[in-house]
Amino acid sequence: MISKKNPIDMLFAGITAISSFMVIMLIVGILYVLVKESWPAIDRFGVWAFITSDDWNPVTESFGALTNIYGTFVTTLLSMAIAVPIAIGIAIFVTEIAPNFLKGPIGGAIELLAAIPSIIFGMWGLFTLSPIMSELIEPALKKMTEDIPVISKLFAGPPMGIDLLTSSIILSIMIIPFTASISRDSFKLTPAVVKESAYALGATKWEVIKHIIIPYAKLGVFGGVVLSLGRALGETMAVAFVLGNNHKITSSLLDAAATITVTLANEFAEADTDIYLASLFYLALILFAMSFITLAVAKFFLLKAERKYSR
Amino acid sequence: MTIVQRRKIRGVMAMTLSALAALFGLFWLGFILGDVLVKGFSALNLDLFFNDPAPAGDEGGGLKNAFVGQLLITLFATLIGVPIGILGGTFLAEYGKGRTISRIIGVLADIMVSVPSIVIGTFVYALMVKPLGHFSGWAGAIALAIIMIPVVVRTTEDMLSMVPWSQREAAFALGAPYYKVITQVVYRGAASGILTGIILSIARVAGETAPLLFTSFNNAYYSVNMNEPVSSLTVTIFQYAMGPYDNWHAQAWAAAFVITVFVLALTIAGRLVIKWRYR
Q1: Closest residue in chain A to residue B22, using alpha carbons only
Q2: Alpha helices (H) in chain B, listed in sequence order
Q3: Which of A95, A109, A117, B121 would you call most buried, defined as having the most Cβ atoms within 10 angstroms of its Cβ?
Q4: Quick one: pLDDT at residue A97?
């Protein structure tokens, strides 16, 4: 469509092409810069040894990523475990159960809540949720589980409210709207004819949801869940307030911990030696790789779902 | 109990559970929003907007530096990110339409949208802060611009694709070169959609904190010099909320109120435009 004779058209096409290539250049650039900046640490600590070392000591200049990776995994998995069932419940409620006049407002409210900045969740967590956790919920959990052998270990230690459990709850509240809105969009795509056929055979509403809507939407919902997982991995401010930045691997959910993002947020601007800064860049590189792979997997499933629905 | 009864009971139980899940989720979300609005509103006062911060621990003072800094950083991020995003989206929807490379860029842009923003912060730190040896407002603006680009690229592509091809063909038939067709026909047709994309992308970055922590950093004094560290509302919230003074906490709530209302207003405005124009 470009007319080769018109120099302005060629120029404009070139400018737009360069602008869109910015996306590729940024991703390659981020990868290159992170590898380059973390090279002293990669060189000194290696790859496997860095990932499996739980040392994080700026004084002796000995660094390992395990405590951070552990914190990231625990908060992410726990928050997903809380958020996914609730988000799917919300999506079912909004698409199938709620009366029509409620569908729009509730759906809109959920999407709006997804727009609230993460720092707001973090600050609310520190001032409002953390005291509730330390005074009410955590003592109750301790009491409920004190006689159960393994589970009581999960709630050992003083209930401070600045810990893995509180962080995971805040994180889950933050990703609920995100997961719910993608699940809702997938549920909505189930053709009415298929649902009506099931109703005509005498299925109850729940049977239609369980046997028709969920199987039909599962690719999209799964993609949405993985996408939320990618988001949760990299979430910084929602957890930075209430995790405590403690570089220890703990068995109790009531202990302070550190995630990759929280370590970066708290220590990056203060890193005073080159190897310290390089190790932090190394953490950023690991986080970038983890979230990029997760998001690519999510995108793969969402594209597959899209193709299936458009058939 | 007959099978039908059992199925009905199971159905009612599942429905109740899902309604409870919805209620539970909405309760927490409403709790957060209500808390921020109530506590933030009660901490609001005019001094906040027109005074500089008081010395740490003293009563009074305001956050003029943070409000102005936030505006500057967001403004420059928009000025850098939006044109690149619109032009990039133009390539995907027009010159590069249907090519493999455009599809790859589209997928990568979708992934970029969700890449942890703190990673962008470390990237810009390595590019701009480390070589120059100091934090700067420009570094913050560029970090936010990088976050905006993929958002704007995607919405622009979507909006341009909605303009019917017959309109372009009509312009081609009059002998217009493609760049004129794009700038004078396609952009006009998609103007409100592109504007919505810009509004939503501003809403997306206005509440960002992580990429500013080690780019624009923070500044306890009023400064409009983008070559120096510049204070922002979000980083100030982080610092004040983690600080020991009640006065700081109140100001953090007030700042949280302002940023939440701003972001939600932009988001609602963007969605209203979409609703009014495209549904």
Answers
A1: A90
A2: 3-43, 46-50, 64-93, 100-114, 117-124, 130-132, 137-161, 165-173, 178-181, 187-189, 191-206, 233-242, 246-278
A3: B121
A4: 85
Nearest CA among A112, A236, A264 for reference residue B265 = A112
ipTM of the complex: 0.91
Residues B254 and B146 placed together within one structural domain of the fold: yes
Tell me, yes or no, if the pTM score tops 0.80: yes
Interatomic CA distance for residues A160 and A243, integer angstroms: 11
Q: Which tens digits make up the pLDDT trace of A189-228?
A: 888 898 899 999 988 888 898 898 988 888 889 988 999 9
- B26 and chain A: CB distance < 8 Å anywhere? yes
Q: For residue B220, report the phi and psi dihedrals to the nearest 5 degrees.
A: -75, -10
In a domain? residue A59 = no
Nearest-by-CA chain A residue for B111:
A295
Same domain, B250 and B124: yes
Structural domain boundaries, residue B109: 48-278
Closest Cα in chain A, distance from residue B54 (Å): 22
- CATH code (residue B223): 1.10.3720.10
Q: Is A68 exposed, middle or buried (0-12, 13-18, 19+ CB in 10 A)?
A: buried
**CA A239, CA A309: separation in Å to the nearest integer?**
36
CATH number of domain containing A157: 1.10.3720.10
Q: Does B213 touch chain A (CB under 8 A)?
A: yes
Q: How many other CB atoms sit within 10 Å of the CB of residue B17?
A: 15
With a CB cutoff of 8 Å and minimum separation 6, the contacts of B173 are none
Alpha-carbon radius of gyration of chain B: 24
Residues B247, B116: one domain? yes
Q: Do residue B164 and residue B264 come from a single domain?
A: yes
In terms of domains, do B111 and B11 share one? no
Structural domain includes residue A234? yes
Distance CA(B7)–CA(B85), nearest Å, equals 53
Number of domains present in the structure of chain B: 2
> Do B190 and B122 share a structural domain?
yes
What are the Cα distances from residue B84, in Å, to A22, A130, B112, B148? 8, 42, 15, 9
Q: Which residues face A63 on adjacent strands?
A: A56
Q: Is residue A29 part of a domain?
A: no
Tens of pLDDT along A49-86? Answer: 999 988 888 888 889 899 999 999 999 999 999 999 99
**Interatomic CA distance for residues A285 and A28, integer angstroms:** 12
Instruction: Measure CA A134 to chain center.
Output: 25
Contact A291 B115 (CB under 8 A): yes
Q: How far apart are CA A225 and CA A175, in angstroms?
A: 10
Question: By the 8 A CB rule, do A66 and A51 touch?
Answer: yes
Q: Do A117 and B263 touch (CB under 8 A)?
A: yes
Three-point CA angle B165, A21, A264, nearest 5°? 130
d(CA B7, CA B5): 5
